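Hey everyone, long-time lurker, first post.

I ran two proteins through the pipeline my lab uses and got sequence/structure pairs for each. Pasting them in order. The first:
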Amino acid sequence: AVVSTQSTGELERERGTYVLRCPTTVFSCQSSLSAPTMLLCLWMMEKFKPLITDRMVHDTGVSAVLKLSDTEWTLDLRDDGTIKNGADETADIVLDMNNETFLKLVDGSTTTAAAYMSGQLKLEGNIMQAMKLSGLFKSMQGAIKDAS
């Protein structure tokens, strides 16, 4: 079966493996939990890596773990300026949300403050450090619009 994922490509399932085929990249994983959304998140994380500039690292100075429905990512805007799969135990903050809330943050239909206040985003750590990530989410919105 092929599932349309808006402008990001096509998602196929073959023998328990999900494959997202985009114009320039192919992502695949084995998962049974929200695989279409998870692969969309994987594609977006790859798209966002170039957004992390030296200036953003200097201005933000925060390392955060994003705990999504099926995966965890570390946004290192403190030391390395990287986005990588998996949780770094030394991160300053942890943002725990489902995939749908993450997609809403990225597409601009909600903000970190609104998601936090409504309980859609749970925070471990300093809320002021979490608010510093709003600039990254705004950059992400631009990257998604450019990819559309």
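...and the second, right after it:
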Amino acid sequence: DRGIAMSVGALHAAPHSLLFLIDLHLQLPRDIAHTIWTHTIKGKSSFAPALVRLNPNATPSDPNGYWDMAGFGILSVHRSDFVESGCTDRTPTYRWGGEDHEIVNKLLKNNISVLRSRLPVSTTSTMPRMGCSGGGLFS
């Protein structure tokens, strides 16, 4: 379960770490580290950029697709905010994307905002969303 793996990784990170959680096949911009550092503020905000989800027939010269504003496959957050929000309290999730939404819900409930912006050169292939249901803000 990806959620449990993220929790274990976060608990083993240094106390003042900035976590960058990612689970997709992406082409990241060269300035991604700068973008993460400027958008993730300890005790205040995390950062979950929106991605272009490419259609199956897309190519680098014809990157057709759509902005996926519902996904949270990329998240940067300070370790202390992750732990204090209860994001390391995990049970296995058996639905696509459930762990991402649970983490975002916990951050929001702990008054850690989740900043969204479009990251134009980050891309991923379209994947079917199966069993994506559950409680919280994104059900």
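Reply from user beta_strand_b:
Welcome! Quick read of the second one: Residues 129-139 have pLDDT under 50 and may be disordered. The chain has four helices and seven strands.
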